[in-house]
Write a structure and sequence with these properties.
Blueprint: E1 3-10, H1 15-19, H2 32-44, E2 52-55, H3 59-71, E3 80-81, H4 98-106, H5 114-118, H6 123-133, H7 142-159, E4 165-170, H8 172-182, E5 199-205, E6 209-216
Helix pairs in contact: 2-3, 6-7
Binding site for substrate: 10-17, 60
Organism: Paucilactobacillus wasatchensis
Active site: 11, 87
């Protein structure tokens, strides 16, 4: 049975991150600090051998992947871009204030923010609630989100060799959602959002998916 070790890395800090704006399928550039964090992650993983490197098709993840690859001592190719590993699509809420949007979505359910909702329901349900609240009804539903991400994981199992170690530069909500879905009580992704440049390790096979580590950073 084929088994893959995936290193999911959240992209470096972006301009929208510093403004606390929702940034799903919209994009903003890495800040100087975001570049520094990506380079630090690359230095941290310099001696880790990767058979393949993927990123979402957003510029912030492609740039982060290239900064990491530049520091790696064994991989010197280009990242493979996959829309499957994009961030969740926030629809009509893209670019708006993160706190204000989640307060608006959560209030009808007796909560104040996304974290309080995730204490009681799955990431897929939260996606459905955002879709329902979106005036444009463009935000991804839970089914749409997981169908896309699962297709990306399935593609890896088909196209990558057994026991390959693969680096994937992706996004915070996607990584958090994977950890809630496949993790155990050793991790607390509901209350701890993955940091920019952090590493989350996932073991993927046809019959089982498990989280090995979550939100590892170079900070001591």
């Amino acid at each position: 049975m084929k088994q893959l070790e995936l290193y999911f890395i959240r992209h470096g800090e972006t301009l929208f991150n510093t403004m606390d704006k929702l940034q799903g399928w919209s994009d903003s550039p890495l800040t100087p600090n975001g570049i520094r964090v990506a380079q630090q992650t690359g230095e941290w993983l310099a001696n880790t051998s990767f058979q393949s490197v993927y990123s979402s098709d957003m510029k912030r993840t492609i740039d982060t992947a290239n900064y990491i690859i530049a520091k790696n001592n064994s991989f010197n190719g280009a990242p493979k871009q996959s829309a499957s590993f994009r961030e969740a699509f926030f629809g009509g809420f893209e670019g708006l204030d993160n706190h204000d949007v989640w307060h608006t979505i959560a209030t009808p359910y007796g909560a104040s923010n996304q974290t309080q909702m995730l204490e009681h329901v799955s990431p897929g349900v939260v996606r459905d609630r955002m879709h329902a609240a979106d005036p444009l009804h463009l935000a991804e539903t839970g089914h749409q989100f997981w169908q896309r991400v699962d297709a990306g994981l399935a593609n890896l199992l088909v196209n990558e060799p057994d026991h390959a170690r693969i680096l994937i530069v992706a996004h915070g909500t996607l990584i958090r959602s994977l950890t809630i879905r496949f993790g155990n009580s050793s991790f607390d992704p509901v209350h701890q959002f993955p940091a920019n440049g952090s590493v989350t390790k996932l073991l993927l096979s046809e019959n089982q998916t498990s989280i090995l580590d979550y939100n590892l950073t170079t900070k001591k």
